[in-house]
TrEMBL record:
Family: Belongs to the imidazoleglycerol-phosphate dehydratase family.
GO cellular component terms given for this protein: cytoplasm
Gene3D superfamilies named among the record's database cross-references: Imidazole glycerol phosphate dehydratase, domain 1
UniProt-listed SUPFAM superfamilies: Ribosomal protein S5 domain 2-like
InterPro entries linked: IGPD_sf, ImidazoleglycerolP_deHydtase, ImidazoleglycerP_deHydtase_CS, Ribosomal_Su5_D2-typ_SF
Pfam families: IGPD (PF00475)
Subcellular location: Cytoplasm
Top-level taxonomic group: Bacteria
Identification of the protein by name: Imidazoleglycerol-phosphate dehydratase
Alphabetized UniProt keyword annotations: Amino-acid biosynthesis, Cytoplasm, Histidine biosynthesis, Lyase
Amino acid sequence: MNEPRIASLQRVTGETDISVTVSLDGTGAASVDTGIGFFDHMLTALAKHGMIDLDIVAKGDLHIDFHHTVEDTGIALGQAIGRALGDKRGVRRFGSALVPLDEALAEVVVDLSGRPFLAWSVEFPASTVGEMDTELFEEFFRAFAMAAMMTLHVTKKTGRNCHHIAESAFKATARALRMAVEYDPRAAGAIPSTKGIL
Ligand SMILES: O=P(O)(O)OC[C@@H](O)[C@@H](O)c1cnc[nH]1
């Protein structure tokens, strides 16, 4: 326990080429280049508020649309976080956060369960924000949760501005994840599951 939880990987398909490095015990330093400005802004917020150092370079078939790049970034990031977590010995496992951005309020609950699941309850009043289709946020979070083998509930409590709604969801995910991956001082290095593995 308390070994540096760092993971790097590269995921290459016929559609995307994505390199990710994560450090779960970082300061929230981020270097993100996906070719999609708003997405970079969201991933930078995820790093900052999750206190996860994040280095992402994603090259994708953006001439088609942003779908493959957004989804595959979720897969690669989720895989890297899952790899950095290892056996999850001594972690809190559960995390939750309510985070506003102006009129928007998002609630996120994370369980590092090993059972991948996304419960998405976020409606956007418009179909785009920046140059991104708002429907892609669900694709990102689903891919991320599946690849990280976590249970993830993302709920919009309220909100009207799409930028605010999206950013509150990413920030709440960051804070919930930060709580879940942190070491529990009372866990004494135990696996936080009655079945002995996660
Ligand atoms: O974390 P802060 O909200 O202090 O800063 C980021 C935020 O100001 C900026 O991303 C934003 C403000 N309104 C929409 N987005």
